[in-house]
Amino acid sequence: MSYFLQIFQLLCLNVILAASLNVINGYCGLFSIGHAGFFAVGAYVAAAASKFWMPEFAAAQPALALIAVVLVGAAAAGIAGLVVGIPCLRLTGDYLAIATVGFGEIIRIILLNTESVGASRGFPGIPLLTGEWFPFWVVLFTIFSLFTIHRLMKSSTGRAILSVREDEIAARSMGINVRFYKTFAFVVGAFFAGLSGALFAHYSQFLHPSNFTFMVSVMVLLMIVVGGMGSQLGAVLGAVIVTLLPEALRFSETLSSIRMLIFGLIMILVVLWEPKGLMGLYFRFARPKKKVSA
Amino acid sequence: MTTPLLDVQDLTIRFGGLVAVNKVCIQIQEGELVGLIGPNGAGKTTCFNMLTGVYEPTSGKICLKGVDIHGQEPHEISAQGVARTFQNIRLFKSMTVLENLLVSLHRERGYSLVESILQLGRFKRRENEMREKAMEILRVLNLDHRADTQASSLPYGEQRKVEIARALATSPKLLLLDEPAAGMNPSETAQLARDIQKIRQDFKITVLLIEHDMSLVMKICERIYVLDYGQLIALGKPEEIKNDPRVIEAYLGGSVGGTHA
Lengths: 294, 261
Description:
heterodimer; A: 14 helices; B: Rossmann fold; four-stranded antiparallel sheet; 10 strands; 23% strand; globular; disordered C terminus
């Protein structure tokens, strides 16, 4: 398979990841940086599903099997989100961030010590379901994820989630069950992170706990910060930049060796000058704010 | 006598050693417009916070139409018909005025999650009905031309009015207004007085009002409760309150020292 097709699929997976973290961090205003944990749960559960639980079905009906295992992986991550969310969402701000980092690391260390999924040797032999049609399914799932999140945010439930970010006390007094909607946003974010993980498992056909380090969570956070928190389009653009930039830098000998440096620099510049990311730039220059006439 | 809409008995809250509100009793009948006044730090907003479930009282009873609401969460109390505004404006700043009101209507959405994602069935109809209801409230308060404006870019006086509109959108029986005239100029305050009387009739609600602007309180309130250092020191008609020596003392200081000019 060609290099560009590989990168394109990776890009789609990152788009789903960024969009899912954006639900938690951008829309609901919760500071979660344990996204690699949900990504890992989705990946390992889906991989186990297609390798151990339904290998015959996967061989006979690869397309249906792919849909099934991806949904199973996503649901498992969603349940993980619920289990982590109920106790952790009593915390706010930095404390929540620390708890979610802890969760991500716990998942990785559990995987590193679970013999049935290969422990530190990794998890090989995950079938590439649907073969050469796989990229098509990746695109389809990406569209499904973006569409679902978009429609969700356009509904009354979406407004309830936003109101929690805007002002928790006011939201409660207006009849919004803040604890429920925080947990709900967390579960939705975890679900789509798991969906991305499930696709990743079948894309790479080999999983290793080192695929799910804290750096992965930071990269996803970087995507939504660069793109602009609380904007779906921003999350997509951020994912595109953070995925493609290191690949573009690969072509230059000198630049490729310092690409992480360039990343750090971009992060600093964005936070210093345009905290709302690319979407902030867009709103500043392309669409001047509607003035209120007195 | 009928059951009062709001019946507060011996409401007390302690923060450590400080008794912020001490054995306060308030009865409000349906349809009344009642004022709650007192010097800074008297415990008025703390009272509101207990009535809306933000703080849990140390002791005492809060009954709404005879039902004890002690220990309920703010969103549960909101569902039973208590809405409020905030002293320091707490709008959903980056949302539009209309969206601010739609958040309050969330409880009435009447469609499921699947319907909202597929935008099928009841979704469009219910969304339109919610928008129409929100616009109606905005029209009453002359804010309909601001519906699509971002809340944070409104002038201060209008932000206060949007807070009232947002509270009204929860379809309350009892509306708690926390210093609605703060920061308003005299003409805005006069307009506010007309607005409060208007919404009271149009929406058939009972109003409890915290306010420092005495001209407003004396003009529109039928009864007034006066708090000082967490204790109820007077209650009565505006005329009685104006001439009550204890109230004058609370606001201007005792006459014993005679330091006031």
